[in-house]
Design goal:
Blueprint (H helix, E strand, L loop, with lengths): L4 H15 L5 H33 L2 H5 L2 E9 L5 E4 L1 H13 L3 E13 L5 E13 L4 E15 L2 E15 L13
Parallel strand pairs: 1-6
Antiparallel strand pairs: 1-2, 3-4, 4-5, 5-6
Helix pairs in contact: 1-2
Length: 181
């Protein structure tokens, strides 16, 4: 059985706290809540990383599984499109990636805010993308503004809004070693 780092951390903290016999019930509950929120934030960051991995590998089914059934994916300028529903989102993902011979997305900074109910969150992820095909190149810095929902113990995207912050279409002349499918 694999143990996730967040779960291992939570178990360690709770074990040490309880074994010292000096933690009140109130302190224990506060520590338990902090641990659960830490775990939720880590899972949301992981969800964004899986999104990036699905894009890098053009894995439509993995990408589709990240969304709630009625999810919304908004892509701002220069594309200006909105896709609604898990299936439409997955089809759009496949279509958009099919136009590139090379595509990579890299996550960088982020901020996650959890709602007090533990079932909703908002997040901002900053990323860098490099893409090209025979006609055009694309280097950009962008931001995803997310609304997330926790269902059956798992986080999903409810809405992702993509905003390009900087775009450079100067021809990328480097050599791609892995072509898209």
């Amino acid at each position: 059985m694999k143990v996730k780092p967040a779960s291992l951390f939570a178990a360690l903290v709770l074990t040490v706290s309880c074994s010292q016999n000096y933690v009140t019930q109130e302190e224990f509950e506060a520590l338990k809540l902090k641990t659960e929120r830490f775990k939720d934030k880590e899972e949301i960051v992981g969800l964004s990383n899986v999104f990036t991995d699905a894009a890098a590998r053009s894995d439509k089914e993995l990408f589709r599984d990240l969304w709630v059934e009625d999810g919304i994916w908004q892509i701002g300028p220069p594309i200006n499109k909105t896709f609604k529903g898990r299936d439409e989102i997955a089809d759009a993902f496949e279509h958009l990636l099919a136009s590139w011979e090379f595509f990579v997305q890299l996550n960088s900074g982020y901020n996650v805010d959890l709602a007090k109910d533990g079932k909703r969150a908002t997040a901002n992820f900053y990323l860098n993308e490099v893409a090209r095909n025979a006609e055009i190149s694309n280097y950009n810095l962008a931001n995803y503004q997310d609304e997330l929902i926790k269902k059956n113990g798992r986080w999903y995207f409810k809405k992702r809004t993509y905003n390009v912050l900087y775009l450079d279409t100067t021809a990328l002349k480097g050599q791609a070693f892995q072509r898209k499918k």
